[in-house]
TrEMBL record:
GO terms for biological process: DNA-templated DNA replication. Residues 1-22 are annotated as: Disordered. Pfam families: DNA_pol3_delta2. The keyword RNA-binding does not apply. Its EC number is 2.7.7.7. Signal peptide: none annotated. Residues 7-22 have a biased composition (Low complexity). GO terms for molecular function: DNA-directed DNA polymerase activity. This is DNA polymerase III delta prime subunit. The keyword Zinc does not apply.
């Protein structure tokens, strides 16, 4: 089964510093973007129509955990200011904020690693033992409120046997339980699991919304705009990056690699394509991340060509270098390059041979007439 590597602990409970705790958005939940999803869940709480299982799917750090915890808070708040909202200050809200509420429990790969250290396994997927443990918890009556909320993050890594074990709980859920499955990729879950959940898909958040969330959390506006531009629509990543300069630096290194690939000669491009193609099986997540960045770089070349700098993902030196390269290309050629990267990502997801997919992609890029080595 495919596994995705991901950083632990998004802007969730226990994370230090004001920047890692999202401020409350206009709809009353500390969730930025995803207004339709928030409305659905707020409505479920307000009308007392809470389902026993939700599947919240979307890219890493897009806001799945923030949404799930806000939902848990609204379900458990002792003094809700309005139906569907949480006060953020009562005993229950504070416990959820600190990750210690006895009726709201989270499971993910990190927790599995911490509790199953003895097994010495690789911990790249959620096992049946973990599911048995969380199902046993799910069956316990809530201690403090009406609901027991069980969060299962990294759900896309659930082994097939683990998913089958989970099905039993989904088929006969305790009346007081709601299960929140959080997954980067919906397709990696069994159809029988998906059909028993209300599916809520989260898409990347507009850049202006990400910037607004950072400003609301106390970041000066120019810096918020800069971080939001690199975040790729993922508020969780933006908040972590705002608090951790190393994350921004690593992101810049990825961008620099993508830019060097784009600016390279036909031969150099092919060499990179073959190298990445050959490492794909072992470093699937990293290669996909590199390709997403590459797609952003080519899209920026297209925007620069079309004189639409407002929507650029990359600014400063990166944009200047791209502008220089784009001058040597026709608009159609740049557009074809963007499509070629999208096709390559789709091909890799469809299990086309990685080297073939990569080679085909670079063969469709326009040649670099103005390319010269960077000092
Ligand atoms: Zn409260």
């Amino acid at each position: 089964m495919v596994t995705r590597s991901k950083p632990v602990a998004a802007a969730g409970p226990g994370a230090p510093g004001p920047l890692t705790t999202p401020a409350v958005a206009p709809h009353g939940w500390p969730v930025w973007g995803h207004d339709a999803a928030v409305e659905t869940l707020q409505g479920a709480v307000a009308r007392d129509r809470v389902r026993h299982a939700y599947l919240i799917a979307g890219p890493d750090a897009v806001g799945k955990t923030a949404l799930a915890l806000a939902f848990a808070a609204a379900l458990s708040c002792l003094e809700p200011p309005a139906p569907g909202l949480a006060c953020g200050a009562c005993r229950s809200c504070r416990k959820i904020g600190r990750g210690v509420h006895p009726d709201v429990q989270s499971w993910d790969l990190a927790r599995q690693a911490a509790t199953a250290e003895k097994s010495g396994g690789k911990n790249t997927s959620m096992t049946i033992e973990t599911v048995r443990e969380l199902c046993a918890t799910a069956a316990l009556r809530p201690m403090e409120g009406r609901w027991r909320v069980v969060l299962v993050d990294d759900a896309e890594t659930l082994q097939e046997t683990a998913q089958e074990a989970l099905l039993k709980t989904l088929e006969e859920p305790p009346a007081f339980m709601t299960l929140l499955l959080l997954a980067d990729d919906l397709e990696l879950l069994l159809p029988t699991i998906r059909s028993r959940c209300q599916v809520i898909e989260l898409r990347p958040v507009p850049r202006a919304t990400v910037a607004a969330s950072l400003v609301a959390a106390g970041l000066p506006e120019p810096r918020a705009v800069e971080v939001a531009a690199l975040a790729g629509g993922r508020p969780g990543w933006a908040h972590r990056a705002a608090a951790d300069p190393k994350l921004l630096q690593r992101r810049q290194e990825t961008v620099d690699r993508a830019l060097a690939w784009v600016a390279g000669s036909g031969y150099d491009r092919l060499v990179t394509a073959v190298r990445l193609g050959d490492t794909f099986t072992k470093k699937r997540g990293e290669v996909f991340a590199d390709l997403e960045t590459l797609l952003g770089v080519w899209r920026d070349a297209l925007l620069l060509h079309a004189a639409q700098p407002t929507y650029l993902t990359h600014r400063g030196e990166t944009a200047e270098r791209l502008q220089e390269l784009a001058r040597g290309w026709a608009l159609d050629d740049v557009h074809r390059a963007v499509c070629a990267v999208q096709t390559c990502i789709g091909d890799l997801e469809a299990n086309v041979r990685p080297r073939l997919a990569m080679e085909s992609m670079v063969s469709q890029w326009p040649t670099t007439t103005t390319s010269r080595p960077r000092p």
